[in-house]
Amino acid sequence: MRDWAALTADIISCRRCERLVLHREAVAAKPPPRFSAWSYWGKPVPGFGDQHAKLWIVGLAPAAHGANRTGRMFTGDSSGEWLYKALYETGFANQPHSTHAEDGLMLTGAYVSAAIRCAPPQNKPTSAELHNCFLYLLNEWTLLRDTVRVILPLGHIAYGQVKRLFPGERWPDFAHGLRHGVGIYYVLMSYHPSQQNTRTGRLRWEAWLGVFREARRLCDEAGAG
Hints:
The chain contains eight helices and six strands, in the order ααββααβαβαββαα.
């Protein structure tokens, strides 16, 4: 079994996808004026959180000026504001904000990852890039599977990668708030909290928070069992 330190080192040093390498480094080299004082991370972003988590959240990818800038998943962008506020309100995080990697944020019982570890152009990874990055998700799953009970993919792409972890399983179509049982695990689906979903009203706060309340309930029941 891989250990966490080795997995993190492998992720950070990865250069498998030329298109993603060029994009993440180009963004880091020429930040917009609002981030001109930042020294961008500009590398693949490893997962973040409790390595004995019951809740495993799988997002899409680092945002170009979010995690690609800060070096921590869902940190420094609007999606992270939604995610960590929900985790805080349901007892998985010690604070509701995520501005930089040294801001004191800690997760208890939750681990945050992504389908792709580099910021993709227009937030659209190719099938080949998803294939290349799946190994890292699989390695995380190997390390988390003894404690995790709820897997929360955010959006269709993350859901597709999570399904690959359970070959042979029959899956329902993606739908926000839908729960699917796989053995001792639950896969709980949600729209991604991107501005494309939150600003248009496709994803509203109460519907988003409701998914995390359900995740909390399922994790607590697993702990009681």
